[in-house]
Amino acid sequence: MAAASKPFRFLDLPPELRDAILSHLLVSDFPIILHNTTLFAPSTSVSGSGSAYFLDVFLVNMQMYQEASAIFYSQNRFTLNAQSHRLPVHLTSRGGFLSEEGQDARRRVRSLTLHLTRVGGEFERVLGPALSDMVLSGSLRELRLRMGPPSWRGPNRIPDPDMVQRPPFQALLRLLADPYLEKVELLAWKVHLTVFCPFHRKTSSSIKADIRMDIKSDAESIDDQGLAILRNGPDWVSLNWRAMVEMYGVGQKIMRVAPVRARSRASSRAARTYSVELLARINSALKADLLAIGSSSRASHLRVTGGRQLSGTITVKSSKNGAVALLCASMLNRGRTRLRNVARIVEVDRIVDVLRSIGVEATWSGDGRDLDIIPPAKLDLASIDSDAARRTRSIIMFFGPLLGQEPAFELPYAGGCDLGTRTVEPHMIALRPFGLDVTVTAERYHATVSPDVPDDLKVVLTERGDTVTENAIMAAAGRRGTTTIRNASPNYMVQDLCFYLERLGVRIDGVGTTTLVVHGVDDIDVDVDYAPSEDPVEAMSLLTAGIVTDSEITVARVPIEFMEIELATLAEMGLRYTTSPEYTAENGRTRLVDITVHPSELHAPLDKIHPMPFPGLNIDNLPFFAAIAACARGKTLIHDWVYDHRAIHLTDLTRLGADVRLLDAHRLDISGPTRWSGAEVSCPPALRPAVVILLAMLAAKGTSVLRGVDIIARGYEQLQERLIELGAQIETFRD
Q1: Cis (ω within 30 of 0) for the bond into 150?
Q2: Do the Cβ atoms of 536 and 621 come closer than 8 Å?
Q3: What is the CA radius of gyration of the chain?
Q4: Higher pLDDT, 6 or 684
């Protein structure tokens, strides 16, 4: 009699075996039709039947769902059918792919084919912002759009040729020009060529004649304007969408030019020559280098050989969040602002690009460390760099300094659909007392400012957010009168902003508390130098590198006032560390120390670890405790109550051997100590969890690969190079 098979728990299997099982079950050779986050349908017919094959997936708990979701969405090719006038309910209802709960799934998809008939209505309100979020988060790499057959009306059944001139379609074209997209294709139903190429010169009758053309499967023909490639039968037209971007978005600088995809090498070469020649002709005709012609952008990856101890001293850079606020506040000053030792990161560069586009003179010093900012007499908001603005959520902080300068203005919409309802509204509540009224569309914020505001103003913030507080402070600083702001954040970047404004002559009482009294000045013209303080979140990142690798390293220039709760929590977990005497930062106000961490036997804390507004444990520092808890003996509960989806990304630590169980969208149960082992992981679409995975790879024996790490450059300046100086073995590569 055969012995009964021994039962096992799926989650007790090694991570690599779980990955292999889930990949076998969930990765399809065929495109997958998106329904919602738990019901998947491959878009191929079962042999011998005409019905689609449906794969129902039942996942027993959140961790298993997260592991399956990571594999399913990142490794499959997807199709989303939005051809009806209304999007299918299963896509937009709670838990659906286009709902708020579907954001994590959307941000993992790498390949998408989208069927559209129109770009108004629900596309503008729901699908467009979701698609924009997928592209801007950096996960989507391949996008194929099939436009048509669109609906039309009228006795001659001729579609509306003005469609491409409308904002939703122009926004769609700009999205296709995103440099992070590696493969792009735009296909249109040939009968509607005049809709998608209104600069095509053929009459309706000649278009109808084209429909009856008999094109062989491998043949192609180019229309008489050289603007569309017709191939593979009479149904679809492959459009030169980059020419369309230039036609309807003149002034957009396109950073990458890729040829239209072709089925044969010969036609691929023809398409490449055709595209480059067309773009060269546009440059020549416009007498401007509006289009940079080059190879496609490729994502960066890191190869980490871990299990090595680190040693040496590493210095904390200046604050990214502080620099962004100071750049925005510089618009209040008609004089010259010189910011010293500014963090050279992507987020800062994007804000600088936006400032330059509206007429601000922004000049880096020869060593690239200091930045001189001189605003013009009047800002040219009509010329704002919309592409750079959409790539940074910090554009929302332009409202505060612009309130006192313009009676009405517009700003590009900051990011995808999930930003609007959760993040923008607290800003609006904070700024309405200053006379601001904002109408939000899928593309822009339309702002008007009422002059009827009393000199003495009291503002109560409903959310003690850092950027919300900064916006209110900048609005108050640029108006004559006294503004009392209650429930203000006293965090490090808010204090930095206050110190800078004080140098401009703005008196602020209560800095470092939750009640601020701002005595505004309506005409500021001062030449000022200011050095942003050091970044406590980067300090926590670097300390974590030493802790998880069981190393002795010194982290210099740590802003101790904003790290005291973190250090107290680490001491409770058994960390041994020493600190230097305090000294003052270059801004003359922030207290700094050097901290040396020593190899320690860590244990889980008695209570859960959770963030709180300052002076509590920093919200951005919480993710690093996930990696630290995985090194500690015992079970640690981490409660990330602020963000709905961030905790999910930290479960990627399981791929490196950690025992991380997701209890719900906000809580993690982590058991240690961990025997870290190398693995390949796709970089989470969130900055801090991405760095946590990288730091855990430093502790993991063997070789690990972290794919798609461009997001790290948003908040860290040359992080991998600086870790290498401590002895880490990290190699940057591209596919």
Answers
A1: no
A2: yes
A3: 27
A4: 684
pLDDT at 601 over 60: yes
SS3 204: helix
* pTM of the full structure: 0.65
For 634-696, the DSSP string reads EEEEEE--S-SSHHHHHGGGGGGT-EEEE-SSSEEEEEE----B--EEEPPSSHHHHHHHHHH
Neighbouring CB atoms inside 10 A of 296's CB total 15
CB 193, CB 228: distance < 8 Å: yes
SS3 content of the chain, % helix, strand, coil (to 5): 35, 25, 40
Q: Assess contact for 553 and 546: CB atoms under 8 A.
A: yes
| Three-state DSSP state, 174 | helix
Give all strands (DSSP E) within 571-625, no chain letters: 576-579, 583-584, 591-598
Structure tokens at 128: 């467009």
Which pLDDT score, from 0 to 100, does residue 88 have? 74
Task: Give kind and range of the element (H or E) at residue 194.
Answer: helix 193-196
For 556-573, give one letter per residue: b (16+ CB within 10 A) or e. Answer: bbbbbbbbebbbebbeeb
Burial class of residue 27 (count of CB atoms within 10 Å of its CB; 0-12, 13-18, 19+) = middle
What token pair was written down for 578? 């020493």
Give dist(CA 350, CA 340) in Å, integer: 18
Handedness of CA 189, 190, 191, 196 (dihedral sign): positive
CA-based end-to-end distance of the chain: 53
**How far is 219 from 224, CA to CA, in rounded Å?**
16
Give Cβ neighbours of residue 4 (< 8 Å, ≥ 6 apart).
none
Instruction: Please list the residue range(s) of the chain that carry CATH number 3.65.10.10.
Output: 303-317+536-734, 320-530
Look up residue 730 and give its two tokens: 């990290």
Label residue 295 by pLDDT band (50, 70, 90): very low
Distance between CA atoms of residues 701 and 279, nearest Å: 49
Cα–Cα nearest to 288, from 254, 239, 316, 332: 254
Contact 660, 651 (CB under 8 A): yes
Find the mean pLDDT for residues 522-532.
93
Exposure letters 85-108 (e unless 16+ CB within 10 A, then b): eebbeebbeeebbbbebbbbbbbb
Q: Is the peptide bond between 412 and the residue preceding it cis, with omega within 30 degrees of 0?
A: no
Residue whose pair of structure tokens reads 């982290």 in the numeric block: 555
SS in 3 state form for 526-563? CCEEECCCECHHHHHHHHHHHHHCCCEEEEEEEEHHHC
Is pLDDT at 23 greater than 90 in this prediction? Answer: no
Q: Is 23 helix (H, G, I), strand (E, B) or coil?
A: helix
Burial of 667 per CB tally in 10 Å (0-12, 13-18, 19+)? middle
Instruction: Return the closest-CA partner of residue 630 out of 609, 616, 611.
Output: 609
Two tokens, residue 504: 């401009």
Tokens of 469: 């507080």
Cβ(140)–Cβ(112) below 8 Å: yes
Q: Rounded to the nearest 5°, which phi and psi values hold at 382?
A: -70, -20
Rounded Cα distance between 544 and 623, Å, is 10
Q: Which two tokens stand for residue 381?
A: 């908001």
Report the length, in residues, of the chain: 735
pLDDT of residue 42 exceeding 50: no
303-317+536-734 under CATH 3.40.50.2300, yes or no:
no
What dotted CATH number matches 320-530? Answer: 3.65.10.10
Nearest to 220 by CA among 257, 182, 247, 260: 260
Dihedral pair phi/psi, residue 676, rounded to 5°: -65, 140
Cα separation, 432 vs 582, whole angstroms? 41
* Token pair listed for 373: 């900012």
Considering the chain, what percentage of its residues have pLDDT values greater than 70?
Answer: 70
